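Need residues for this backbone.
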C-alpha cells in the first residue's frame, strides 16, 4: 500500500499537484484508520491531503481515475497467472525493441503501469518547455514535433504488441491473445487520449472561464425585480463567489499592510550604526480601521428584491466591518440585526418576511420612518458610521422629513442612498429623491448585481 501511494504521489507531482512530504506522511497515517478496501474512504483520504483547492480537486479526480482505474490490470489478465506472466513478457519485448529516446521510454513505462514519465512529458508540452517556447509564426512547431514523436511511439508499440502475440499462437489460445491485446490497446488508447486532451486543456479552461464571466455579467445586468426563481438561485451562487473574491483581496491587502508603513526617520537613525546603510527597516504599526454600517432597507414591493441582496452581501462581509446593524421599514422602522446574527442569511430573510411585526401592505412613509429612527436609534451613529439607505424615496406625498436626514448625516461619517428604481423616473410623481439627494454624500442607482457589486467593492476595498 505504501509503495502504491508513493507512486501515485510521484504521478501527482509531475502532473502539477503540490504535494509535500508532510502531507504524504499524514495520508499514510490516516489510511491506517480506515478500511482501504472501501474506495470511497480511500479516495476521500487522498483527496483531503493532496487536493487543496477547487481547481486541484478536478485535476486530482482525473489523475485518480487514470491511476487507479484506467491503468489497473484487466480483470481477466489479473485472475490468470499465465496471462500475467505473458503480459510482463510482452512489455519486456516492447522495451527490448523500442527505439531510443525519451518519448519511447515514457510510452514503455506507461504501458508497464507507471504514468509518471509520460505525464511529465505531457506537462512539458502543455507549458511549452519542450521546444514550444518563443513567439511568432512556427513558435509551437517544437511542441507539435514532440507530440508527433509520442504518437509514432504509440503506433510502433501497438504494432509490436500484435507481432509479439501472433508469434505466441502455440503457447496461448485465441481468447488469451485477445485478452492481452485488448488490455494493451486500452492502455495505448488512454495514452493517446491524454496527449490529445492536454493539447486543448489550457484553451478550454480559458474558454470555460470566459463563458462563465459572460454568463455572470449577463446575469448581473438583469433588474432585481425581473429575476426568475432559477436566476435568484444562480444569483446566490454568484454572490458567494464574488464575496470570496472580495475577502481574498482584502486578506492580501491586510497582509501587506500588517507591518505598517515605512518609518523613514527611525530607519535612517538606525542606519548610522552601519555607515549610513539601512540594514534594518522600521515600520509604523497602525491598526486597520473598520467601518460601522447602519443599513435602512425599504421592504415594499420591488425595492425589497434589491434590499435582500444588499443585506446578503453585507452579512457575508461582516469581517470587513466593526458592526453591521440592519433596519427594515415600510411605514415605521424595525431593527432585524438579531435575526441575521442568529440565522443563516437565507433563513433570516424568510423569517423577516414571515415573522417580523411590520405591515408590508401599508403605504410607504419615509417621513415616519425617519422620525422613529431619530427618536429610538440616533444615538448609535458616530463619525465611524456609514449609513446606507435602500429605497425608491416614494413617500406617497407625505412629509419627507429631509431635515432629519441632515441630522443623520451630521452625526455619521457619510450617508449613501441606493435607489433601485430606474434613474429616469427619479423625481417624478411622489418621489422625494431631489429633497433627499441634497442631504446625502452619495446617491447611486442600484437595480442589478453589477451596480450593487460596484458599490460594495468601493465600500470595503
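Answer:
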Amino acid at each position: 500500500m505504501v509503495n502504491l501511494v508513493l507512486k501515485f504521489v510521484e504521478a501527482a507531482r509531475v502532473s502539477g499537484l503540490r504535494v509535500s512530504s508532510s502531507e504524504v506522511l499524514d495520508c499514510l497515517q490516516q489510511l491506517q484508520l480506515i478500511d482501504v478496501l472501501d474506495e470511497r474512504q480511500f479516495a476521500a483520504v487522498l483527496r483531503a491531503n493532496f487536493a487543496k483547492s477547487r481547481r486541484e480537486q478536478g485535476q486530482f479526480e482525473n489523475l485518480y481515475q487514470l491511476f487507479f482505474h484506467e491503468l489497473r490490470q484487466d480483470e481477466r489478465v489479473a485472475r490468470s497467472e499465465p496471462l500475467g506472466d505473458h503480459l510482463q513478457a510482452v512489455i519486456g519485448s516492447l522495451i527490448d525493441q523500442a527505439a531510443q529516446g525519451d518519448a519511447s521510454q515514457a510510452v514503455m513505462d506507461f504501458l508497464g503501469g507507471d504514468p509518471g514519465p509520460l505525464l511529465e512529458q505531457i506537462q512539458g508540452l502543455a507549458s511549452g518547455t519542450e521546444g514550444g517556447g518563443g513567439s511568432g509564426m512556427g513558435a509551437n512547431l517544437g511542441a507539435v514535433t514532440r507530440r508527433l514523436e509520442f504518437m509514432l511511439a504509440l503506433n510502433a508499440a501497438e504494432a509490436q504488441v500484435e507481432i509479439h502475440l501472433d508469434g505466441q499462437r502455440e503457447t496461448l489460445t485465441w481468447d488469451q491473445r485477445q485478452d492481452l491485446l485488448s488490455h494493451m490497446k486500452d492502455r495505448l488508447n488512454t495514452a493517446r487520449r491524454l496527449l490529445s486532451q492536454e493539447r486543448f486543456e489550457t484553451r478550454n479552461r480559458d474558454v470555460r472561464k470566459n463563458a462563465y464571466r459572460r454568463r455572470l455579467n449577463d446575469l448581473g445586468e438583469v433588474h432585481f425585480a425581473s429575476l426568475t426563481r432559477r436566476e435568484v438561485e444562480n444569483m446566490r451562487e454568484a454572490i458567494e463567489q464574488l464575496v470570496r473574491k472580495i475577502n481574498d483581496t482584502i486578506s492580501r491587502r491586510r497582509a501587506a499592510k500588517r507591518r505598517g508603513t515605512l518609518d523613514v526617520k527611525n530607519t535612517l537613525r538606525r542606519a548610522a550604526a552601519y555607515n549610513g546603510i539601512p540594514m534594518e527597516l522600521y515600520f509604523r504599526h497602525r491598526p486597520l480601521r473598520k467601518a460601522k454600517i447602519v443599513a435602512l432597507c425599504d421592504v415594499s414591493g420591488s425595492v425589497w428584491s434589491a434590499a435582500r441582496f444588499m443585506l446578503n452581501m453585507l452579512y457575508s462581509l461582516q469581517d470587513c466591518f466593526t458592526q453591521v446593524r440592519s433596519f427594515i421599514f415600510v411605514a415605521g422602522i424595525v431593527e432585524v440585526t438579531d435575526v441575521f446574527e442568529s440565522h443563516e442569511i437565507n433563513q433570516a430573510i424568510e423569517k423577516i418576511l414571515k415573522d417580523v411585526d411590520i405591515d408590508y401592505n401599508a403605504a410607504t412613509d419615509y417621513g415616519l420612518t425617519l422620525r422613529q429612527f431619530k427618536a429610538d436609534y440616533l444615538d448609535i451613529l458616530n463619525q465611524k458610521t456609514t449609513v446606507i439607505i435602500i429605497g425608491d424615496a416614494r413617500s406617497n406625498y407625505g412629509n419627507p422629513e429631509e431635515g432629519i436626514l441632515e441630522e443623520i448625516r451630521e452625526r455619521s461619517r457619510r450617508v449613501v442612498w441606493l435607489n433601485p428604481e430606474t434613474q429616469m423616473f427619479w423625481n417624478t410623481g411622489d418621489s422625494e429623491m431631489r429633497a433627499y439627494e441634497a442631504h446625502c454624500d452619495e446617491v447611486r442607482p442600484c437595480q442589478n448585481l453589477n451596480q450593487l457589486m460596484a458599490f460594495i467593492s468601493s465600500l470595503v476595498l
